[in-house]
Write the structure tokens for this entry.
Amino acid sequence: MEEEAVAPDDSGQVASEVSTPSEEIPQMEFHASHMPAGLREEPSLQTFDSVDKLAKSYVNAVKMIGGNPEQMVAIPQEGESWDGFYNKIGRPEQANGYEFGDENGELDGFREFAHNTGLSQEQANSILNLYGEIQEEQETDATTQLEELRTNTTMELQKEWGKNFDGKLDYAKRAFAQFASPELIQVMDDSGLGNHPEMLRAFSKVGEIMGEDSLVVGTGLGTSQLSPQQAQSEIQALYSDKEFSASYRDNKNPGHKQAMNKMDKLFKTAYPNQRRVR
């Protein structure tokens, strides 16, 4: 076959390459009616009239979504199980597959919750960390509020009782120790009610009405007899009383002898079968 002669251009040079007209690839027709039965009525396919357009649409969709379509996880339809979906996005196959570092299974309840909710290990860790931070913040706030209550109560009652503050507070402590069970004392301490000014006023009045003798362990001279539990509570209250502790521990203190006698009586009632060693 003879080559076609190429005429020189205006400069007298012959072009080194010969341009050929681009050939258009014929488009293949597409009809949704040719698709399998489950796809024939798909609305999104009705707009395509060629395979070329369908292919371009698919490529653009993949670019917009990102990633490999084969690695994508389909969201279950209504009525379908979510287990496969949860497992593919990182949920352990079993609830005991979560690792939280608890040795005795304290978090087994949370494991069940996390598994039923479909959480991955990382998501479950994030929730636990957030809960721990919130709990720590709440405990700090509660401690701060309790300290503020103690301070405010002391200032209020010092102003109200004046020079009688120590005596009235002592009456309140003794009455509280005699009538309150250890369980109630614990509740009052935890809630802060034991430091509420109204509570201290009430118990102080009770103590004053009953008088000094009736708030000390009975000696057979008409005084009320404490139970062992009440005597133990009274001992703890006295140990917490700075003024009493100073008298009790310092043998040179003028009130030392009286404090020792009072504690001896309390120990005999609190621990009747034990011999006290000083």
Notes: The longest helix spans residues 121-161.
